[in-house]
Amino acid sequence: MNTPVIEAHALIKTFGTTRALAGVDLAIHRGESVAIMGASGSGKTTLLHVLAGITAPDAGSVVFRPAEGAPIEVTALSESARSRLRRERFGFVFQQGLLIPELTAVENVALASMINGVRRQDAVQHAASWLA
Ligand SMILES: Nc1ncnc2c1ncn2[C@@H]1O[C@H](COP(=O)(O)OP(=O)(O)O)[C@@H](O)[C@H]1O
Ligand SMILES: [Mg+2]
After folding, report:
1. What are the pLDDT digits (tens) for 58-89?
2. Cα-Cα-Cα-Cα dihedral of 121, 69, 92, 44, to 10°?
3. Which label site among 23, 24, 77, 113 has the fewest CB atoms less than 10 Å from its CB?
């Protein structure tokens, strides 16, 4: 099998006395759809945030292998480099609260591209085709 697009190794994240991640290993391959299931409070959101570089783990590593270019060790990046990675490379649909109600669905999707410097007209056109 090809090398994973996202690979996590021995992730640990603790909040106070709560161990949210207790040594998580995970490999996700290009084109794969993965559902992470577990009881409320079992650490799903924490894992997603660590994989995405939103949250830094206490220990362990996350490597992202883009289709082109060198592998990126997400857990070795600065906070600003992780923000740039999310802006340019990752896409999210959050559970709640992060759509802007004044904007249409197409505009909500186009917004991320516009922040990334794509012209409004192009961003809206791409967003409409993605949603379609
Ligand atoms: N920012 C935080 N501060 C303190 N505790 C947190 C924080 N985020 C998550 N936790 C705790 O870590 C555990 C895992 O939470 P979470 O990853 O949100 O689980 P899930 O998404 O599976 O419901 C829970 O016990 C939760 O209360
Ligand atoms: Mg959650």
Report:
1. 999 999 999 889 999 999 999 999 999 998 88
2. 180
3. 23
